[in-house]
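Hi! If you just cloned this repository, the fastest way to understand the data is to look at a raw example. We've pasted two of them here, unedited. The first protein comes first, obviously.
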Amino acid sequence: MNTFKNIVRQIIYAVLIIVFINVLIFLFKHKQIKSSGPYIEKETPADMVFIPGGMAEIGTDPELEDEIPGHYGMMYEPYRDEQPKRTVFVENFYIDRYEVTISQYRRFCKATSREEPKIWKGVLPEKPDWFPAFGITWAEADEYAKWVGKRLPTEVEWEKAARGPKGSRFTWGDSFDQNIIPYLEGIYPVGSNPVDISPYKVHDLTANVSEWTAEYYAPYPGNDYMRQQPEEGKNKLYVWRGYHHNVGERGHYDIPYFYRAAYRGVGDPETRYSTTGFRCAKSL
């Protein structure tokens, strides 16, 4: 009889232990799920922003955009290379909150024993450290990104970071904000523009300098239009995003067309454009 009682007691103890262990496992998993968001935020690299993955609205439906008057003298068909508007899946990623600054790029030059861009000579602001680096070739931007353990963003990533979860036309919303106009020529310290902030709190995607992406310029799927071809014997062209123009070049550059998040710029990767810089991205 005692033997039977002992067996029952041992069975009860074993069941209780199994139940206890399963409760601990459940609580541990539940805690992990609950804390996954804050944990990602906590681990976000310094001066970067976490962009959640998911579906992203990319490109343009010209029927929903303003018609560009012929007297503006466009050398290509507006909106044509931004079509079709589509929804694509994007993985989680990080992107720099600000454009790479002159001080950051100078550290890179010093560490890798290379000269600063000659285009900087005589034109830098009096205190240039927090101004965006400009006159950077695509290869230099790519090398810098690798040096800091990052990479250049893809077109889709850049546009996702700019448009936010609702796919806004501009970084700040769907309507052009006239308050951006004073910031559309020349450069200024990164993060100092109160208008140009995306829903994810990424700064200066619209103005300051335009920014190299990781990708060749090519038609979107289902489209065959390219507004520019590389010169004979030269490398493929790359896409830059955002828009910038030099002081005194405003004119029709003030129209909203150029400052939409879907606008695609095109550049030769070997050319030093006085208006082009970059920011970095990173995979999780």
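Ok, and the second one:
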Amino acid sequence: MSGLLLKFGCYQLIFGLFLAWIMVLTAHVKLSFLQKIIKSYRDLVKAHLDYFLMSLFLFSFFCLSRTLEFEPNFGATVLILYGTSVNPLGFLIPALNPKVDSYSMTSFYKLLIGSAFLATTSGICWFIFQALSRASSFSSV
């Protein structure tokens, strides 16, 4: 399961870099077709940063599981992967459609983002408890 954390972290890092290029092409090169697609540059920047942050979480969990020599629980891994993959959409969707924001969210958008926050939080807590349990089994030197 830890291999999936690494792979998803790499995919999210690549997508974050892709968004960086979209930002450059939109704001500095001023490609008109991208300026028509990107409605909120500010939300695009947030999505870009969130993908990077989520990839760092995944890389950290991968390294921690390897350091403590344990395989993360399947359930925790699924929750973390779902949450970290969907969470940045909370910014990417409004970047493309500013009518979807915190004040006028559709029910689907609320469910999507709420489920991502819940999955991320519970998956990370589950993983951390598993890591703490494993760390306590190491003898102190």
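That's it. A detail worth noticing about the second one: The chain has a mean pLDDT of 89.
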